[in-house]
Write a structure and sequence with these properties.
The chain contains 7 helices and 6 strands. With about 200 residues, the protein is α/β, with parallel strands linked by helices. It has a 6-stranded parallel sheet with strand order 3-2-1-4-5-6, sandwiched between helices.
Length: about 200
Amino acid sequence: MDAVRVALLREVLAGTEWPGAARRFAGVLRGAVEAQGGGLLLVGTAAYEPWHLAAHLDDEAAWSGLPALSPTLVRHRVPAAGPAHLGVGLGRLEAAGRGETLLVVAPDEPGDALLERVGDARRAGAAVLALDGGSTELPGLAHELLTVPGDSGDIDLETVQHLVSAAAGENGAPPAASARSGFRDRLARLAEVLSSPPPPRW
């Protein structure tokens, strides 16, 4: 999602908690990768792979001049043939530790196998952040958590990922929010922008 679409999305959500919550979470993410210095690992659940977030963070890393924001996408199932950057399996989490940042995206329950690996990474010193849909276990493992309940009505986890990735790559203060029109009117105006295709690399 380009800067214009992000700005429009923020306008749609002006007056809700989500732009500010996404900025706060993005600030923690950016601070973690800058402080840790060991790279960013991004993992979803067995049923959900956050490739769109991976692509946007990769773009933001290039545009912001912060290479540490470019994630390694860790996958539950790795195809036999495919690009190297899409060939990293869950075994990578077993090596995660001090100096690394692990971002977990879980719209559903992560599952015991992933939770065990996340817990091991945290105990080994990795910074753990999570975007979730209301997991019962992740809050106890994440150093920073942003929950987007599935029944929130205003927004979904995909949309929050756009806000987080854009904010993570930004420098400076956020623009002032606009309240020129009602939430529903602004949402109707921008329905199309949320379905843009991923960048070619992904």
